[in-house]
Amino acid sequence: MFLIRYIKKSHTRGSMLLSVMVFSAIAITLVSGVVGWTQTTLTLSRRAYYREQAFQIAEAGIDYYRWHLAHNKNDFQDGTGQPGPYTHDFEDKNGVVIGQFILTITPPPVGSTVVVVKSEGVVSAEPTISRTIQAKLAIPSFAKWAVVANDTMRFGEGTETFGPIHSNVGIRFDGLAHNVVSSTVSSYDDPDHDESGAEKLEYGVHTHLKPPPQSGSYVQYVSAEMPPAVPATRSDVFLAGRQFPVAPADFTGITANLSQIKSSAQSGGRYFAASGYQGYRILLKTNDTFDLYRVTNLSTVSNGCGQNQTANSQDGWGTWSIRANNGQTLLGNYAFPANGLIFVEDNLWVEGTINTARLTIAAGRFPDNANTRKSITINNDLKYTNYDGQDVIALIAQKNINVGFVSEDDLSIDAALVAQNGNVGRYYYSSSCSTYYDRSILRLYGMIATNQRYGFAYANSGGQHVSGYEDRILTYDANLLYAPPPSFPLASDSYSTISWEEIE
Question: Where is 166: in which H helix or E strand?
């Protein structure tokens, strides 16, 4: 009996020992796990802290270079005159260096204002941790509108616009606008309809187009478009709305400094002095060259074509078309200049096609005199090969940008058009001027900046089309905003951030 009891007692003590060992092992495992988890958590927390610190250091690098460009907008070498990258210490509030940002600066390509700034933030306490931010900074050009004018404007029926429209005076819009139409004034007396000199104000942006399901436009004043009535939404005309009054466009900035363009063309571009005849014709080619012609004779019109009040009241009225036979002489073929600037001190005709080229073509006569200012005329297609920003043309005229009498029935113009002192448009030609008086469609891809009233078509007092292009399609080239043609006027001296992203 004693032996049996002893064996049972020994078995009990062994079980207890085994249990203690098992639970101890579990406890050790749990404690080890907790310690390991704590260490891992601390490591991850520390890495997260340093990653956030590296991100903030990288951001500081972007902010620093925006500040640098604000003081020297054309310095893309961090004030060193040497190629990068450029490393800067980053200090905490106590002046202790806790990291560095490393800058890589990509300057704008020719004709662009877009600067690419890449900033890598590195933490001193953990150099293996870094984060990188890339930002694109740019100065906006004056090509922020599809059409901008320093005068009243009228867009008739048949006009369709893609891009913002603005006037410093007022706009009557009877077409279809896909983007905002704005005016600096709250109301104005539209000169297109006058009742015995009586002043009747309509809103700064208004329409005479009859609301659906009606068709056509009202001839006289529209009470719904006159203060103090609340202007209707008219989403059938203004798809994105209309705004008035808004801040004016600064035409002292939008009128490019032609004398500077002339100097730059003389020093590193293409410059041509007065022709001694009617002017020059430039035919652009896709092989980065252009043919230059001296224009010797212009076409004439039939008797009575210009014998009307509308034509005679237009400054510089004429055909602005080169005579088909014996109207020009080839002078030679020239390569596009490296700086993209072509200046002629005479009237100029431009046409052709480019392929991956950036050009500014200007015409003027100096010293500047209102009686000798020069114009640019487009009678035949002026086109891009690429519509992704690789191709861009600016035509800047001291006086007018014309479409002449003998112009294509279906005319395409790919360019930014700037009339420094005159207007962008086509002269009035009556039905007695042959079939050329009436044209079908004009397609513009680019923008228009006109000091005086713009227009490619004319309507009678009843609103019916009587001269020019019956349909006008104006499409804004958004690439012009931050990647304008060479020496194109800018909207400010300050860089704006147009994109920001973290990269691997």
Answer: strand 165-167
Could you give the dihedral angle defined by the CA atoms of residues 57, 62, 68 and 71, in that order, rounded to the nearest 10 degrees?
-130
Provide the whole-model pTM. Answer: 0.81
Question: Which span out of 229-238, 255-264, 284-293, 315-324 was modeled with the highest average pLDDT?
Answer: 284-293
The residues that bridge with 502 in the sheet, in sequence order, are 133
**Nearest CA among 387, 404, 398 for reference residue 351:** 404
Secondary structure of residue 393 in the 3-state scheme: strand
Cα angle: 163, vertex 169, 175; to 5 degrees: 40
Q: Note the pLDDT of residue 180.
A: 97
Own/partner contacts of 3-11, CB < 8 Å, gap of 24 or more, are: none
Which ranges of 276-419 would DSSP assign to H, the alpha helix? 309-312
Peptide bond into 85 cis (omega under 30): yes
CB-count exposure of residue 450 (10 Å: 0-12, 13-18, 19+) = buried
Q: Which residues, listed in sequence order, are joined to residue 316 by a DSSP beta bridge? A: none
CA distance 165 to 168: 11
Tell which residue, 67, 132, 144, 78, has the closest CA to residue 107: 78
Q: Which of 144, 69, 141, 77 is nearest to 104 (CA)?
A: 77
Asked whether the beta carbons of 403 and 379 are under 8 A apart, the reply is: yes
Tokens of 186: 């709250």
CA distance 467 to 431: 8
pLDDT confidence of residue 34: 60
End-to-end CA distance of the chain: 81
Q: Distance between CA 206 and CA 238 in Å, rounded?
A: 10
Contact, 139 vs 121, CB < 8 A?
no
Q: Is the peptide bond before 245 cis (omega within 30 degrees of 0)?
A: yes
Cα distances from 283 to residues 127, 181, 339, 376, in angstroms, run: 59, 35, 19, 13
Give the C-alpha separation, 132 to 503, whole Å.
Answer: 6
Other C-beta atoms within 10 Å of 234: how many?
19
Element at 412 (helix H, strand E): strand 410-419
Q: How far apart are CA 112 and CA 35, in angstroms?
A: 58
Q: What φ, ψ does residue 333 adopt, rounded to 5°?
A: -110, 135
